[in-house]
Design goal:
Radius of gyration of chain A: 15 Å
Largest sheet of chain B: 7 strands, mixed
Strand content of chain A: 35-45%
Helix content of chain A: 40-55%
CATH architecture of the largest domain in chain B: 3-Layer(aba) Sandwich
Largest sheet of chain A: 4 strands, antiparallel
Order of helices and strands of chain B: EHHEEHEHHEEHHEHHEHEHEHEEHE
Order of helices and strands of chain A: EHHEEHEH
Structural class of chain B: alpha/beta
Strand order of the largest sheet of chain A: 2-3-1-4
Distance between the termini of chain A: 25 Å
Oligomer: heterodimer
Distance between the termini of chain B: 21 Å
Shape of chain A: elongated
CATH superfamily of chain A: Ribosomal protein S6/Translation elongation factor EF1B
Shape of chain B: elongated
Helix content of chain B: 25-40%
CATH class of the largest domain in chain B: Alpha Beta
Number of domains of chain B: 2
CATH topology of the largest domain in chain B: Glycerol-3-phosphate (1)-acyltransferase
Number of strands of chain B: 13
Number of strands of chain A: 4
Structural class of chain A: alpha+beta
Chain lengths: 97, 342
């Protein structure tokens, strides 16, 4: 499993849906899990984006699929960035070549 | 503690440093110096280089992190998703105040609930429990406004127990309307009327100015005293937050004395945002009552109140004994079956 950081911004329509049915948020999470992702943590945030999700997924392909499926509904815009834990990044940096 | 997300991007110097030293960790040290905690940290591919989740005591501490030497940081307040969903479904309408709270039946009911509301918690968790300067209550007659620092949910119980009997019988607590008086919450113990009955609270709309103080003025007219935490919220930093002007407006409008109190040790028993409690020492310092002459400017009075509590804080700090080692204890469930605290 690889880790991804997914930054989400609601569209106008998404905002409306959320106001009318707040529980929709949890349903979206279930769908992500059904597609093979696993949500390890999630926050509502203030600023340029509305939510941030730390997501574990088996491959880039799975994440791409989640991204397209979610984006296709027109309720959110997603930016997904591959992430690795800082310790493994440092490990990689300091490993002998 | 408040949670923040930090998106960092290396500047050119940062990239050079990274290539040279192959070390990261400036943020961790910074967060720890602010008495915070680095929760999670990832290296990213994309528009940012490092993604960190940190807990720091407050927003001010978060501001101190904006200046990274090697990275450009974007600091974003984060709200727990469960809390966010719950808030979305919640109305902002509030209930109360309840004038019946000073009626005889309500007073009898409150007396019966006293152990559960106030004294039980203090007897169980605040050990030893010390009140210093209680002689300042001696000359006090008639309604007064009691003010104190606010760091824990146990504060009102601890303060109540420090008051002389004659005040315990006639005291009301200013409570945040947006927390304790939300309309339509589930469970008896989350209803506004429950707080009005059990702890004699009345709602104060934070930031609503004088309009939210009418009930407080009415209580003072009826010779009831009032407890207000002028910081307007629990402070988790250990410092005093800026005082709101409400308590001064009340005291000036009804010409009543203000009694400053400083409470120490309660944050350690139940820190903000936590449910687990542990037994701890509590010391309450009572200052000399402040009396303001007619026509005093509310902001001057507020400043005087702030100084009075800060003086008690300084006194407490200089008298602080070494911290005892405490065993954490799970919170007892006091809820009868069939009720839910959520």
């Amino acid at each position: 499993m690889a880790t991804y950081i997914m930054m989400t911004r609601l569209t106008d329509e998404g905002r409306k849906t959320l106001k009318e049915r707040p529980q929709r948020l949890e349903e979206v999470n279930k769908e992500i899990e059904a597609m093979g992702g696993r949500i390890s943590s999630q926050y509502a945030i203030l600023g340029e984006w509305d939510f941030v999700t730390i997501l574990d997924a088996p491959s880039n392909e799975v994440v791409a699929r989640i991204s397209v499926e979610m984006g296709a509904r027109g309720t959110v815009q997603l930016t997904t960035m591959p992430a690795m834990t800082l310790s493994s990044f440092i490990g990689m940096l300091t490993a002998p070549k | 503690m408040a949670r923040f997300i930090i998106l960092s991007k290396f500047n050119s110097e940062g990239q050079q440093q990274l290539a040279k030293t192959r070390q990261l960790g400036a943020l961790k040290a910074e967060v720890e110096a602010l008495h915070g905690k680095l929760v999670e940290q990832y290296f990213l591919l994309g528009s940012f280089d490092i993604f960190s989740i940190v807990d720091v005591p407050d927003g001010e501490a978060a501001h101190l992190m904006t200046a990274g030497a090697l990275t450009k940081r974007t600091i974003i307040p984060a709200i727990d998703m469960k809390l966010f969903t719950r808030l979305l479904g919640q109305t902002t309408e509030t209930t109360g105040p309840h004038r019946w709270q000073i009626s005889l039946p309500a007073r009898i009911g409150r007396r019966l609930l006293r152990k559960q509301t106030f004294t039980g918690d203090v007897a169980r968790w605040c050990k030893p429990y010390t009140v210093l300067g209680a002689e300042n209550f001696d000359g006090l007659k008639g309604p007064a406004v009691f003010i104190a620092n606010h760091a824990s949910h146990l504060d009102s119980s601890a303060l109540y127990c420090a008051l002389p009997k004659r005040y315990q019988r006639r005291v009301a607590f200013g409570a945040a309307a947006d927390r304790f008086y939300i309309k339509g919450r589930k469970g008896i113990k989350k209803q506004g009327w429950w707080f009005s009955l059990s702890s004699n609270s009345f709602p104060i709309k934070r930031g609503a100015g004088r309009s939210s103080l009418a009930h407080g003025e009415w209580l003072l007219e009826k010779k009831w005293s009032i407890v207000i935490f002028p910081e307007g919220a629990r402070s988790s930093s250990g410092r005093l937050a800026r005082f709101r002007v409400g308590p001064a407006l009340l005291a000036l409008a009804k010409d009543v004395p203000v009694v400053p109190m400083f409470m120490e040790g309660l944050a350690a028993i139940r820190p903000r945002g936590q449910k687990a409690q542990q037994v701890g020492a509590v010391t309450i310092r009572v200052g000399a009552p402040l009396r303001f002459p007619q026509g005093t400017d509310p902001s001057t009075a507020t400043k005087a109140m702030e100084h009075a509590i800060d003086a008690l804080r300084v006194e407490a700090k200089s008298a602080r004994p070494p911290r005892p080692i405490l065993e954490p204890v799970a919170v007892p469930t006091l809820v009868p079956s069939g009720l839910s605290l959520g």
